[in-house]
Design goal:
About 70% of the residues lie in helices and about 0% in strands. The protein has 18 helices and two strands. It has a two-stranded antiparallel ribbon with strand order 1-2. α2 packs across α12 and α3 runs parallel beside α13. The longest helix is centred in the N-terminal third of the chain and has 38 residues.
């Protein structure tokens, strides 16, 4: 999930490094690291709808690799250039993370068997693994018993590989469904099996049925005008999406999902290219450094998939998955997105040098490291619980990071308000 939601960052860094040769790519990764750790975790705490308890072992595992990636990035950026073996070390860092994940349960059981502090760290994780295994066995037993009962009753066995669909209150187009009742149904009428309704559906339902929005829709003509403008602007994209990923091929083509996946990745690449070019030109017009545009603007946009996926799984009670998605995305961004793009540049052009590496990049990297340590300490202090108080505190820290980024960089051709110490790998950007 973390790799999939990091696709925008991956293409942003590749295009910024190899095509536009700008600093937005590095800024996007650094900014996304703060946005993911602070804002996404904060939103997850606020919108989870419950106080989630996360498991110590996977969180500490991901934090270890995440902090290692930040330290390596800081050390590699000090000499103001990236050599081929440095980018290779980043890629090997992610390879070691993937290898650990393949042996994760074995490592956890080995640590648990040693007793002492290691047993304390892995107690809840081992208990969770055993609980999930028991639930899976019970589910399989119930499924087998049901199939056996159906066979004895003479009912046909459901076709394997098929995807069943049961109309719900959200499906206004379902056969025989009453559209008015579907529109007024509460989000609680979610499909069976989900602990909570979808975050997007809940938010959409709340906004669409708010008194102010209903009054705006009924009593003004502006609503129709806005709807027409929105349709006019979205029509080219929606038409292109429908033509490139036709729904009519769903039942005809066995590998339709693979085609959809490939075309979706292609569309992400195309749209990211447009966004990157637009952001670069806006920064040039306003005389804002590329590192700032990437850190503040691009990072927020490219982290939307991470935000939605973490909040959705958190509302289903999967706090571990939400935090793992955030930390896993940050690990992938630094190790793979930067490592792979810098490796390509070293192969094609030699050592990678950029204005961002010669500027004050060390400062936001240090903030990322400090914030990461703070987040880990906050989890420990809160006894591994995701509370709303923690969520608001993390969002406030992200706002502080944005303010520091603006104050320590040259905006509009003016000198930075806060001058950073003249340390190796730094210049004031003038």
């Amino acid at each position: 999930m973390a790799v999939g939601s990091s696709a925008p960052e991956f293409f942003t860094v590749i295009i910024a490094t190899m095509v536009t040769e700008s600093d937005e790519g590095i800024g996007d990764i650094v900014g996304a690291a703060v946005f993911n750790s602070m804002t996404i975790v904060g939103l997850t705490c606020i919108f989870a709808g419950q106080t989630l308890v996360i498991t110590k072992f996977p969180v500490l595992r991901d934090f270890s690799f995440y902090i290692l990636s930040i330290i390596l990035l800081f050390l590699f950026a000090l000499d103001e250039k990236i050599l081929w073996y440095e980018s290779l070390l980043l890629l090997l860092g992610y390879a070691s993370y993937v290898f650990w994940m393949t042996q994760n349960r074995k490592i956890a059981r080995a640590m648990h068997s040693r007793g002492g502090f290691l047993k304390f760290l892995t107690d809840d994780y081992i208990a969770d693994v055993e609980r999930r295994a028991k639930e899976a066995e019970e589910k399989e037993a119930k499924k087998a018993a049901k199939e056996e009962g159906d066979a004895e009753a003479g009912q046909p066995k459901p076709k394997e590989g098929g995807v069943g669909f049961t109309p719900t209150a959200y499906d206004a187009n379902a056969e025989g469904a009453d559209k008015s009742s579907a529109a007024s149904a509460a989000p609680a009428a979610s499909p069976a099996g989900s602990a909570k309704p979808s975050f997007i559906r809940t938010l959409s339902f709340t906004l669409r049925n708010s008194k102010s929005f209903v009054a705006f829709r009924k009593n003004t003509s502006a609503y129709k005008c806005i709807a027409k403008v929105q349709k006019a602007f979205s029509w080219p994209l929606t038409t292109a999406f429908k033509l490139s990923m036709p729904e009519s091929m769903r039942d005809k083509c066995k590998y339709w999902f693979m085609w959809n996946f490939g075309v979706s990745v292609a569309w992400i690449c195309i749209l990211i290219t447009c966004v990157l070019i637009f952001t670069t030109r806006v920064g040039c017009i306003l005389n804002i450094p590329g590192i700032v545009m990437g850190t503040i603007v691009l990072s927020s946009g490219t982290s939307v998939p991470d935000s939605l996926s973490s909040i959705i799984v958190a509302r289903k009670g999967e706090g571990d998955m939400a935090i793992a998605n955030v930390l896993g995305s940050n690990i992938f961004n630094i190790f793979v997105c930067l490592g792979f793009s810098w490796m390509l540049w070293n192969i094609a052009e030699g050592p990678y040098e950029a204005n961002a590496l010669k500027g004050n990049l060390w400062f936001p990297i240090m903030i990322v490291l400090v914030y990461s340590c703070f987040l880990l300490i906050a989890f420990i202090v809160s006894r591994w619980r995701l509370t709303k108080k923690l969520g608001f505190s993390l969002i406030f820290l992200h706002m502080t990071f944005i303010a520091l980024t603006l104050l320590t960089n040259s905006i509009g051709g003016k000198k930075p308000i806060l001058l950073l110490p003249n340390t190796p790998g730094w210049s004031d950007g003038r």
